[in-house]
Amino acid sequence: MDTKIILDENELPKKWYNIQADLKTPLEPPMHPQTKKPLCSADLEPIFPKELIKQEMSQERYIDIPSEIRDILTLWRPSPLFRAHRLEKLLKTPAKIFYKYEGVSPPGSHKPNTAIAQAYYNMKEGIERIATETGAGQWGSSLAFATQLFDMECKVYMVRGSYDQKPYRKMMMQTWGASCVPSPSPDTNAGRTILEKNPDTPGSLGIAISEAVEDAATHSNTNYSLGSVLNHVCLHQTIIGLETQKQLEMVDETADVVIASAGGGSNCAGICFPFIKDKIDGKNPDIEILAVEPSACPSLTKGLYAYDFGDVAGLTPLLKMFTLGHDFIPPSIHAGGLRYHGMAPLISKLHADNLISSTSVYQNEVFEAAVMFARSEGIIPAPESAHAIRAVIDKAIECKKSGESKTIIFNNSGHGHFDLSSYEAYFSGSLVDYEYPADLIAESLKNLPIVA
Amino acid sequence: MTSIGFIINPYAGMGGAVGLKGTDNSIKEAISLGAEPQSATKALRFLSGLKEKDIHFFTVNGEMGENVLRKTNLSYTIVYHSEKNNLDPIIKTSAADTKKACLEIMKAHVDLLIFCGGDGTAKDVFSCTGNAVPILGIPTGVKIFSGVFATTPESAVHILSQWNGNNLIDGEVLDVDEEEYRNGNLKTTLFGIAKIPYVKGLCQCSKQVSFGDEADNMEGIANFIIEIMQDDTLYLLGAGTTTKKIADTLNISKTLLGIDAIYQKKLLKSDLNEKEILTLLNYYDKVKIIISPIGAQGFILGRGNQQISRDVIKKIGINSLIVIASESKLQNTKSLFIDTGDPDLNSSFSDSILVISNYKMGIRKKLIH
User: Fold this and answer.
1) Helix/strand/coil for A221
2) For A447, which residue in chain B has the nearest alpha carbon?
3) Which residues, if any, are the signal sequence (chain B) (predicted)?
4) Does A324 sit within 8 Å of B360, measured CB to CB?
5) Class level of CATH domain B209-368
6) Quick check: B208 contacting A, CB < 8 Å?
7) Helix crossing, A112-124 with A50-57: angle to 10°?
8) Chain A partners of B213 at a C-beta cutoff of 8 Å?
9) pLDDT tens digits, residue range A296-346?
């Protein structure tokens, strides 16, 4: 079998897949942060374009991808699906391992799949400037890339831990014309308040979201854009899974396991949702969908399924999701993109409905897997993507023990060329295996009074 | 100009080479068995590595400092003469000299006191300095269980060159029972908690991932533990400043080196011995023990906190232990150790343990038993 499975440009999907149409019960609505009542479209209009709000709430199963967006996506899409022959050989596993490689995009990850769409819809509605946050820098650089294609300004609040670790991501954003500041920043009320309390904070995605939302709400020409969590973001990323399904068809393969790392949930949604449709429809009922999280921030694996704010300051709508609490600030693990207290409501719902399972892994075992992958397949993966690789390797080893020849698919969501200091930390033995003390927290919550 | 006190225990390490497991009371025996001095060579490795010109040493004459310093270009003042006081032709210096020298050095208001020796020397030095002066050991002795030592003379050079003069963390000084040790038993008690210089990891990347400083970590740990404390549970707080921070936050006066009992966020009893703990356990169904790793080897049980005995652990169960330590404290401790004295009980512990290192955060460490 070939190593690369390539689709022609004219096979680029023409529609995104909206899993909301196939949920057993509808998604619980987001709530207004003040009134605690379900949000309506008008509540979101100060920061989002109408078309994205429509997509956020849509129950249509398929939504057309405008030709202008498809045209830009062809700069790197369809992305290749690889058969990881060499990794299989290294592991001596009977499992067949395939990976979708999203690191071929100009910014180097899956993030531009939605950045292009979001910039496009904002541009169509006359927005001149977009404010956003970024964790590892993949989203910020993707939105910088996307906005400059439509002659828009872009302001990126980058989690300070990552800003310090990855100066080249900041330069990428500058190259594409965006302004990038470390978060918390003195540019917003939310940032100033946190800096006063803790001037040395490494920041978090939740804090950066607060700043970007405030920026958008206080500038009339500015909208906010989010790189993960929201339904429309998950929708745009489904192009990954839709392409993967076509590529598997080309080689007559059926997925048994689909694995993705999960921080806010967008790359997981992207590869998994089209396969979950097959599970729901009964076309592939036994397929296993696995989300992999860092043990330092295991919202899906150890969090509570409850309404919570999407940000630290409590400015965003309340979302029903698996959460560790919006005030939880994860430590500065190297997979900065996975440092988020919550999880996409759609992923959360599917997890609650037992359609997605989850696991959490430690930093050192993640990098051990990343190095095995780099040494066999050549690609140096982003630390975020390497969480999936860890689980893939564990699954392939299980197959070796059981003798099963499962077909394992995973999303290699980006390259790690800007994460080499993380690899250095791993090689020097200085990576810390952070772990959320879930049992102690659960024990203390057990005795809370039950409020009717 | 940095002022540093510098003391060498010239006999440290001599016992080890001839199989005496320590030199404290058997220097003559070690010398008669052909033991060679170890300390001076390592002391010179340390001093030769110093590039900093702006240091002045306060030291002792002869083998306790002067002889080695003379071989370098470093500036020094002799503040104590040891050999004047000792008439023994073989053993020219003693533990008493170490203590007297420390007291003289402290009069010079040094920023740091560096000593070359082992656990015995650390105890002698700390008994004089207390927390008035930070100390740092260059390991030249046989027994290095206290948490006040650099790993090598070269790492002591690194610490000294990178230290900002203010950043300090705790280091436990352990009293090792020499006679028991000679018989193959490691029996230690926690003698005190010294202040030692703290420098973040050697590599740039480890700096980038550090999660707040020592004080933030300690505060985060205390706040988290208090948040999860239950009113129906008895808490036994072990020795050290990390556990003491919990008591301080609750406005409870806790002993630094002892085990104290807390119930419903109030002090029940201080400085409990094993028997008192076992008696207390008869009255409380739910008990948690909160302890911090002790010493250079990161002992959780079995060294320095013998009050939490095998019988205590058996009674409350191994899952009732909550281990706490700041990230900086854990930085140089690759693994943690448990030795309850009962192999079966030891093996019932898992191969790793979660150490609470901040508010709602822990670090998974390898556990050796």
Assistant:
1) coil
2) B230
3) none
4) yes
5) alpha beta
6) yes
7) 130
8) 200
9) 999 999 999 999 998 877 888 899 999 999 888 888 777 777 888 899 999
Nearest-5° Cα angle at B169, B300 to B116: 90
Q: Could you tell me the residue range of the domain that residue A288 belongs to? A: 4-8+76-108+238-441
Chain B residues close to A437, C-beta within 8 Å? 224, 354, 356, 360-362
Q: Could you give the ipTM of this predicted complex? A: 0.83
Beta-carbon separation of B206 and A333 below 8 A = no
Backbone angles phi, psi at A258, to 5 degrees: -120, 130
Burial degree of B73 (CB within 10 A; 0-12, 13-18, 19+): exposed
Q: Specify the pLDDT at position A204.
A: 80
- pLDDT tens, residue by residue, B173-191: 988 887 777 776 777 788 9
What is the domain partition of chain B in residue ranges?
2-199, 209-368
Biggest CA pair distance of chain A: 61
Q: Out of A71-85, A207-221, B73-87, B102-116, pick the least confident.
A: B73-87
Q: Compute φ and ψ for A27, nearest 5 degrees.
A: -65, 135
How far is B166 from B199, CA to CA, in rounded Å? 10
Burial of B270 (0-12, 13-18, 19+ CB in 10 A): middle
- Identify which has the larger pLDDT, B216 or B261: B261
Please name the residue of chain A whose CA is at the shortest distance from the CA of residue B205. A425
Q: Is A334 on the interface with B (CB under 8 A)?
A: yes
**A444 contacts chain B (CB < 8 A):** yes
The yes-or-no verdict on residue B308 having pLDDT over 80 is yes
The residue out of A175, A190, A224 marking a domain boundary is A224
Q: Tell me, what's the pLDDT at A362?
A: 97
Per-residue burial over A219-250, b = 16 or more CB atoms within 10 Å of its CB, e = otherwise: eeebbbbbbbbbbbbbbbbbbbbbbbbbbbee
Instruction: Give the nearest partner residue to A428 out of B205, B227, B229, using CB atoms.
Output: B205
Query: Which of these three, A196, A224, A252, is where a domain ends?
Result: A224
Answer whether residue A88 shows pLDDT above 50: yes
